[in-house]
Design brief:
The chain is 45% helix and 13% strand. It contains ten helices and nine strands. The longest helix has 20 residues.
Length: 322
């Protein structure tokens, strides 16, 4: 007897291996996938401007990266003692205009160079509800907790979202014609605006995606469906009942792994996980002969893995066990 509707991603998939250079951008769910990839030594750059949720802001950030369209002082505002921009997360803020501009424009340069050699881009859209600055009608990536009167809230239209999707593809292909792009939609529900608005918001993202998924080198991974339709149970969510918990994230990762990661990488991934587990282990007595022998064996194990995978860097791990 079947008690759930298990979902299997489409057979057509990308192939990520240890030679891949991965760029991820989007909602906080993007961070979960990229953190796992990074922990397993894949080459990943994630959310260079910080977490971003709506397609237009993602498009605007990619435009700045591709065109090297630098921020200027007029793009910043002072709030709570630091200079910020509505186009990026607070991690880009700093105490002076000069420091903020140096930080954020360095990110543009580094990301531009990175995208030139990127093989795979994973984009996670969070919402189609946006906030526009009342004075300029500019769509913000982050409202930085400014007064509600500063903004006007609305839904993006399907046409606006499709245009953003197409421009995202255009900018990425301009940097690298062979780049493979994966779109996915975050399963995190944005309930601040109410469940009905959240449903409309996600539906608009899906409807717009339907218009462009037939294009070459464009793929879709069903993160949203895996959590909301496959797992479909509150035991897979955090206490806030909105964010997927570790069990759900692990489930989605396993599906992503089987869909996107080359099986040739599995053995290396397993060995890296063993090293990571050994690092997390905290012995009661770390000066015993047994523990010294354990560390010695882990150095040997890590060196062997390094030899088999010269493209990976295990310097920190070897230093830890030495």
């Amino acid at each position: 007897m079947q008690f759930r509707t298990e979902l299997f991603p489409a057979s057509e998939a990308i192939v990520i291996n240890y030679n891949s250079r991965i760029f991820t951008i989007g909602s906080c769910f993007t961070e979960h996938i990229s953190n796992t990839l990074r922990t397993l030594k894949f080459n990943v750059l994630s959310n260079p401007f910080g977490i971003v949720y709506n397609p237009v802001s993602i498009c605007n950030q990619l435009e700045r990266i591709v065109k090297r369209k630098y921020f200027i002082a007029d793009d910043l505002f002072l709030s709570e003692g630091v200079y910020r921009t509505f186009e990026a997360h607070s991690i880009m803020a700093d105490y002076t205009q000069e420091e903020t501009l140096q930080k954020i424009n360095t990110v543009i340069d580094e990301s531009h160079i990175r995208l030139q050699n990127t093989t795979h881009v994973i984009i996670t859209f969070g919402a189609s509800i946006i906030h526009e600055l009342s004075e300029t009608k500019s769509i913000v990536a982050n409202n930085h907790k400014q007064a509600a009167s500063t903004f006007q809230k609305r839904f993006l239209t399907i046409i606006e979202i499709v245009e953003a999707y197409l421009m995202i593809i255009f900018y990425l292909k301009k940097m690298n014609a062979d780049i493979e792009i994966v779109f996915t939609i975050s399963p995190v529900r944005h309930i601040k605006d109410g469940l009905t608005d959240n449903t409309i918001s996600k539906s608009l993202l899906f409807a717009a995606l339907h218009e462009i998924l037939n294009k070459k080198d464009i793929f879709y991974f069903p993160s949203y469906e895996l959590v909301i339709d496959d797992l479909r149970d509150y035991r897979f969510f955090e206490k806030d009942l909105v964010h997927p918990n570790a069990m759900a994230i692990d489930y989605v990762w396993e599906k992503f792994k089987s869909w996107a990661i080359s099986k040739d990488c599995y053995s290396t991934m397993e060995n890296i996980s063993k090293i990571n587990s050994a690092i997390q282990h905290r012995p009661f007595f770390n000066k015993t002969e047994q523990h010294k022998e354990f560390r010695k064996k882990m150095v040997e194990f890590t060196l062997q893995l390094q030899k088999k995978n010269p493209m990976l860097n295990f310097e920190k791990e070897i230093e830890f066990f030495t």
